[in-house]
Amino acid sequence: MSALSSCRNVVYGCVAKHMTPLSIDCFSERKEEIVAKVASKALVPQVVVDMVANLGHRDADEMDDLPDEDVAKDFYAKYEPKEVLGRGVSSTVRRCIEKETGREFAAKIIDVSADLEDSQGLTLREASLREINILRLVAGHPYIIELHDVFESNTYVFLVFELCKNGELFDYLTSVVALSEKKTKAIMKQLFEGLHYIHSNNVVHRDLKPENILLDDNYNIKISDFGFARLISPKERLYDLCGTPGYLAPELLRASMYENSDGYGKEVDLWACGVIMYTLLVGFPPFWHRKQMVMLRNIMEGKYEFCSPEWDDITDQPKDLIKKLLVIEPNERISATEALKHSFFQAVRARVGPFNARKTFQLAIMAVRAMIRIKRLKYTPEPLSLEMAKINPYRIKTLRKAIDGCAFRVYHHWVKRGEVQNRAALFENRPKVEVKLLYMQSIAMNTRS
């Protein structure tokens, strides 16, 4: 038994060093490397190596299994489930088709058979029912995900949502690296309008992030995932720790660390909006750090910067709005209503004066010339200085965007360039000695044979 336990520890130790928890896709991509790592360990039987080799396929197949039709007759009678769109710890999201109309929806299938409790003492079923009640309370807003249908059985809860074919804002941001001020303005305006509606119904979301913001066919946002949302009275304060580390507000961290804390309220959602807006504009969040304790300390101190060269071409208005959102004291932080009144969202009004034909004609000529130049920009390459590329390639916007995109795809997480770390260090990888030894041993064995 001790030998088997030892082997199991080696297996999971190797897997834990090479993959993010619950990331089956990441495991599949790096399976060969992990298997080689396990095989290199002494006293590891071949059966254990085979177990690791089949680990990703087994877990994926188990999560892909659909509930039996006897368990959810009502759901299967109305909908036809299709491929998997996403997975969570205890849930799977599938595309499904309504049989009567042929319309497409997204079905979130939650396994509530396990008697697990969250930090508030709620079981999965109770937490799911609370989420359903909140979704119904905030229904009817164009920028909030619509709950279309609900089915419940002894072991599963089925939530049928509208289908957002363009996926998560996070994935869209990963593909484009950063958004323009105009696109950021459109997304943040919709986010603040949706958040204002949520707060007006005395609900705090507590987990706003790009992964929980979906995009519909027209790239309008849909706020989703109300699993951590809570009903809250105007003077009520919350103390439990929940959310995603990079988007947690300072008062939420204080509430979990100090007994004499004042707690937190709806203001935590506005802090998260500040982090999201910062991330949209430059492609990385303000407080992210590989060491989580350093990141949390930066959040508590409100320590961030508009670093160069990413922020050099961004105007002062979005910077000012971010500063008013990322305020340590929640009482001084602006609300969603105040954010919508910020100058960043206000359209510039032209002055109306007496009509002048000559000036109007000259203005039309200038507008046509500008449009021609803008169209030509698409086919005109950006001037590239070889000297600048040698000295500081990251200052060139085209190269910077390519580097950021590659870094995210390689490391599967945000990469911040600041005083503590830099992107150049990411490519200074140490040689993988153990893998090299395995490779050399295999060559030696082949030459002998």
UniProtKB/TrEMBL annotation:
<keyword id="KW-0547">Nucleotide-binding</keyword>
<dbReference type="GO" id="GO:0005964">
    <property type="term" value="C:phosphorylase kinase complex"/>
</dbReference>
<keyword id="KW-0321">Glycogen metabolism</keyword>
<keyword id="KW-0418">Kinase</keyword>
<dbReference type="GO" id="GO:0004689">
    <property type="term" value="F:phosphorylase kinase activity"/>
</dbReference>
<dbReference type="GO" id="GO:0005524">
    <property type="term" value="F:ATP binding"/>
</dbReference>
<keyword id="KW-0723">Serine/threonine-protein kinase</keyword>
<dbReference type="InterPro" id="IPR008271">
    <property type="entry name" value="Ser/Thr_kinase_AS"/>
</dbReference>
<keyword id="KW-0808">Transferase</keyword>
<keyword id="KW-0067">ATP-binding</keyword>
<dbReference type="InterPro" id="IPR011009">
    <property type="entry name" value="Kinase-like_dom_sf"/>
</dbReference>
<keyword id="KW-0119">Carbohydrate metabolism</keyword>
<feature type="binding site">
    <location>
        <position position="108"/>
    </location>
    <ligand>
        <name>ATP</name>
    </ligand>
</feature>
<comment type="subunit">
    <text>Hexadecamer of 4 heterotetramers, each composed of alpha, beta, gamma, and delta subunits. Alpha (PHKA1 or PHKA2) and beta (PHKB) are regulatory subunits, gamma (PHKG1 or PHKG2) is the catalytic subunit, and delta is calmodulin.</text>
</comment>
<keyword id="KW-0112">Calmodulin-binding</keyword>
<protein>
    <recommendedName>
        <fullName>phosphorylase kinase</fullName>
        <ecNumber>2.7.11.19</ecNumber>
    </recommendedName>
</protein>
<dbReference type="InterPro" id="IPR002291">
    <property type="entry name" value="Phosph_kin_gamma"/>
</dbReference>
<feature type="domain" description="Protein kinase">
    <location>
        <begin position="79"/>
        <end position="345"/>
    </location>
</feature>
<dbReference type="GO" id="GO:0005516">
    <property type="term" value="F:calmodulin binding"/>
</dbReference>
<dbReference type="GO" id="GO:0005977">
    <property type="term" value="P:glycogen metabolic process"/>
</dbReference>
<dbReference type="Pfam" id="PF00069">
    <property type="entry name" value="Pkinase"/>
</dbReference>
<comment type="similarity">
    <text>Belongs to the protein kinase superfamily.</text>
</comment>
<dbReference type="InterPro" id="IPR000719">
    <property type="entry name" value="Prot_kinase_dom"/>
</dbReference>
<dbReference type="InterPro" id="IPR017441">
    <property type="entry name" value="Protein_kinase_ATP_BS"/>
</dbReference>
